[in-house]
Amino acid sequence: TAPPNPELSLALGRDGLGEAAFGIPAAAALTEMTALLGEPDDDTGWVDPFAISSCAGTVVRRVSWGSLSLLLGDESPFAHGRRHLYGFGYGTVDAAGLGPPGLLTPEGIGLGSAVADLRQAYGEVTVDPGEPGLIDASFYVDDALRGLLTGGEPEDTVTVIFGGQYCA
After folding, report:
1. Residue 87: per-residue pLDDT
2. Widest CA span in the chain
3. CA-CA distance, 130 to 123, in Å (whole number)?
4. Phi and psi at residue 17, in whole multiples of 5°?
5. What single string gives the DSSP state of each residue in the chain?
6. pLDDT tens figures, 45-54
7. pLDDT tens, residue by residue, 10-54
8. What is the architecture of the domain spanning 16-164?
């Protein structure tokens, strides 16, 4: 496993992950993330979209480093007919403390940020308190940035951040 490169930045952006913009070729995105984070912990390989979720296209792939996952495929609003980066997920509702730690949006929001911080950073963010035991609380900034929360109150916190295209 190659050691991570601390010189590279990795912001959870609305337009990509670090320097890897949504729509860049899959191989380039994987090269950049591996240079920064080392070898991935998990890789689905190229599979049918329904093997992962209900994503568009003919193939998709999820590559993960701890609780950070890249989503790659051949169809999204960012590119058509070629394998490319179209999204990311960071965090998990099931287990705390998975790496890589400390990743933030350009506005300073990360795992553990309070709902009050979301409102300050994004103004018109939509917060859905969910339904305990049935539907996770969530936030929505825009089509390129959303995530999950511990609840809908100002002191509740971010548990997952999704960027780019989301497949449910």
Report:
1. 96
2. 43
3. 20
4. -120, 110
5. -PPP-TTS---B-SSEETTEETTSBHHHHHHHHHHHH-S-SEE--SB-GGGTSS-SSS-EEEEEETTEEEEEEEESSS-EEEEEEEEEEEE-SS-S--SSTT-B-TTS-BTT-BHHHHHHHHSS-EEE--BTTTB-EEEEEETTEEEEES-SSTT-BEEEEEEE----
6. 999 999 888 8
7. 899 999 999 999 999 999 999 999 999 999 999 999 999 998 888
8. Sandwich (2.60)
Report how far residue 97's alpha carbon sits from residue 104's, in angstroms, rounded to the nearest whole number.
15
pLDDT at 14: 95
Omega before residue 100 within 30° of 0, cis = yes
15, two tokens: 């337009």
CA–CA separation, 155 vs 74, rounded Å? 39
Q: What is the pLDDT of residues 149-158, one digit of tens each?
A: 999 999 999 9
